Amino acid sequence: MKAIEWLGKVLRILDQSKLPTEIVYRDALSYESVAEAIENMEVRGAPAIGAAVAYGFVLGALEYQGDREGLTSHMEAVQARLAETRPTAVNLFWALRRMEDRLRECWDIEDLDDVRQVLIEEAGRIAEDDRRMNRLIGEHGNDIVPEKANVLTHCNAGALATVEYGTALGVIRTAHEAGKNIHVYADETRPLLQGARLTTLELLRDKIPVTLIADNMAGYLMQQGKVDLVIVGADRIAANGDTANKIGTYSLAVLAQAHGVPFYVAAPTSTIDLKVAGGQEIPIEERPAKEIRECFGVSVAPEEVNVYNPAFDVTPAKYITGIITEKGIVAAPYSVNLLKLMVRA
Ligand code: MRU
Hints:
Elements: E1 4-6, E2 11-14, E3 25-28, H1 31-39, H2 46-63, H3 71-83, H4 90-104, H5 112-142, E4 148-153, H6 168-177, E5 181-187, H7 194-205, E6 210-213, H8 218-223, E7 229-232, E8 236-238, E9 243-246, H9 249-258, E10 263-266, E11 272-273, H10 290-293, E12 294-295, E13 298-299, E14 312-315, E15 322-325, E16 328-330, H11 334-343
Parallel strand pairs: 4-5, 4-7, 5-6, 7-10, 8-11, 10-15
Antiparallel strand pairs: 1-2, 2-3, 8-9, 9-14, 12-13, 15-16
Helix pairs in contact: 1-2, 2-3, 2-4, 2-5, 3-4, 4-5, 5-6
Bound molecules: 5-S-methyl-1-O-phosphono-5-thio-D-ribulose (MRU).
5-S-methyl-1-O-phosphono-5-thio-D-ribulose (MRU) binds next to helix 2 and strand 9.
């Protein structure tokens, strides 16, 4: 199951909002179509969004009909549209910056098709880098997974949230492939149920034992000693280690600490944002009230009730046992160790 696939002149997007009941694809031929797919969460998960905007950028260049001179201002508009889709996952801005830099380096290339080719290759590298980083995250993360472990995860940080393999689920996959006895508790992840709809689907397909729980059951499970380890993904990690991830992650981290359960974040370095000093500076997306008042089209609350729907929360670094990246595992003090990690080749 691939979240996105580049087919030459089209970005094929698996519509995750319909999973697991329907398998529907959007063939995006325009950057606007990619932007809409991100806004509607047809493609979601920080690294997958990053790769999708890179190809959205390419589509913007392919759509352009003007002369060489006008390309820069057209691409600025493309970039601005893609940048406004979702605010929290920094991978989106990281990928757009890579594409922008690449375009800038093309200033002396006259032929528009040659410029387009350079951009296609850069988007391909972004996707390839993500694949590679996820495999390495899996290998490093495997070191902290015991031979027999009940692992709790939240939301979906799997193949569907990345270009391939996954971050938190990448660690779980590698441990399983290494022959460890792994069982996963998947939080359903209200309101959009990425855990129930996507994580369980991925794990079942890979024949990794999984049990689905409602979000409010995690504390009870930990109290009973049923969770050995928590591993989650991330949307943005600040310079001090504070980590934004799907709403509900913070509660899990506090619970994990209260019960002496190790709490790990798995993410590529493209999710680390050293420009943000601490979690309070991370923009948190608020999503439509409808996602809470309804559950997939079925009303579950009075229509007129007030709703608050933040899509992410921030887990303070003090609750995080370690951050698993493609370059290795980082522990506290994060301000020092994340900086060291980022400058390391
Ligand atoms: O709103 P979503 O589904 O895009 O949120 C996804 C998450 O919070 C993931 O945990 C995160 O993006 C990491 S994905 C490898």
